[in-house]
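Minutes, project check-in

Agenda point 3 was the complex the collaborators sent over. CS summarized: two entities, 654 residues total, and the question is how they sit relative to each other. Sequences were read into the notes so everyone works from the same version.
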Amino acid sequence: MSTTTSTDLPVAELPARAGLFWSTGFPIIPVAIIGVILFMAIFADVLAPHNPEVGSLAARFRPPFWQTGGTTKYLLGTDQLGRDVLSRLIFGARVSIVVGFTAVIFAGVVGTTLGIVAGYLGGWVDQVIMRITDAWLALPALTFAIFLAAIVGPSEMNIVIILGLVYWTRYARIVRGEVLSLKEREFVRLAVVAGCSKWSIMRRHILPNVANSAVVLASLMLGVVIVAEASLSFLGVGVPPPKPAWGLMLSDGKQGLMVGYWWLTVLPGCCIMLMVLSANLLGDWLRVKLDPQLRQL
Amino acid sequence: MSNSILNSASSEPWRQTIPALHRPLLELRNLSTQYVSARGTRVIRAVDDVSLSINTGETLGIVGESGSGKSTLALTILRVLPKAARIVAGQMLLDGEDLVRKPEAEMRHVRGKRIAMILQDPMASLNPLFTIGDQIAEPIRVHEGARRGAAWRRAIELVKKVRIPSADTRVGQYPHEMSGGMRQRIVGAIAMSCEPRLLIADEPTTSLDLTIQAQYLALLRDIQREHGLALIFITHNLGIVAKMCNQLAVMYAGRVVESGPVSRIFNAPAHPYTKALLNSIPRMGDNRQRLTAIDGQPPDLSRLPRGCAFAPRCPSVFDYCRVEAPPATDLGHGQTARCWLTTPSTAGAAACAGSVS
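CS then shared the predicted structure for the full assembly.
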């Protein structure tokens, strides 16, 4: 790497701080995919060639442009109501991203808070919170989500809250475990003997130290939550039609699969797969990068 | 022996007038702390009937083996005991105010503000995520409600005071950018940040190398002199005690077996345990092939023998030691010991023991 001339003394290169992101193993492809999906979500109004919710019945079941019968007017074909698949995919990205991120953040805030409180205060508070967590984890996540969705009715907002309520337990468990070891650390004990209150210790000394793990878990949970949202939409208790959501598109297109309208299911399926795969790869990389045991201070 | 009777008798009126004229900064009276197991079946007397006092400007050394209750005593004074432990008896008078009965909310303003503590491990005592300036400023902001900027300027002053060069840039750095000695000084600066009256240092130099240790001790002494601070120094290094302290308390199995001025205890130790401890220190010009060790094991605090806890290991033990625990006996000049050999009422027994040895 060194471009110094031979007269210079060899100087050991310290890993620069920017090296965190451009070091070996940086997941360029997953980040690029997530970047493209984010871009589509943000600029959906500009990018989409057609209105995703209104189709023309005269142009139903058009195949993608490279197949016979396809036109460049509908690049990826149309569905059973003549709506442009490409536009629906682009707007669907917005739903996935918005629901995925907000649900992950909501679950993260609830779970991390409860995990810190349980771990730090201990005693009966810990017992109550962790027994609730155990009971919660015993319920099958998706069934529970369907149950909740059936009660409160489908809407984007409700989906976020439901997914948050279903998945906070994972944060609570992991964060609590970390807090248990953190609170025995000398700097926390020093804060105690320096007269800090319990709440300020949790906020100033515990929270920043568990933030890493929470972020890593969030990136891994993103994939789970997006699949869950797609599943709920597929089952008809998620994002209500005609709003385009990838899961809903899968569900709408499934009858067409047998008669050769493959683009109605394969394309949204690929979008879900790419998004989840990228989120997981990014999460794995973050986990290794931010792991205090592997990290060099 | 009659001499000691005279001393203790003549010192009685003197002791009575003392509290009125000159009140110690911190006075522990018959303090006991116990750990109780979850089912309440085992009780560990970690601190048992401890009476000590310390004046402003004094340094009290507390020595003893691991598990003798030194650290629990420190945690008791600050009332930051683990859940299983509680103070079961006694008083802790700080400026005449009993800390045992103080509500927890008020106790928080004692910790860090009036009594500060330095913990053992400088590597782990600092939060790796904050700059050292932030961490020194934290108690100032908590206890004095100082603004960020003002607290930061105080932090720089404190870093200068603990003799770290280029304080202005150092306050903006993180703990991992400093050496162990520097980190320990930062911990000292945090302890001094609210100008406490009493500083408790729990083996503050065990993890430092010897040169750094000497520098750090010199620094502590200077700070103490400058601020008229009372210092409680917990250690198992009698060399440090000789250098740093003017008062000494020797703990064994949760009890203070001997206490008094360092010079008196070093020259005329009264308790066999203290004698054994002093004998086990290697000295310059020492020709012994093996160092003297104290035979036997430290006692199990949950199964203490009846009588004196040191009896099983004591070289001058006699029958009565196993029957009843000795009370604290005043030996004059502020020296007390818990040993039947020093108790006037067992002078005969002592003479008997003397003939044995």
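Noted in discussion: Residues 2-21 of chain B form the longest helix (20 residues).
Follow-up: revisit at the next meeting once the mutant set is ready.
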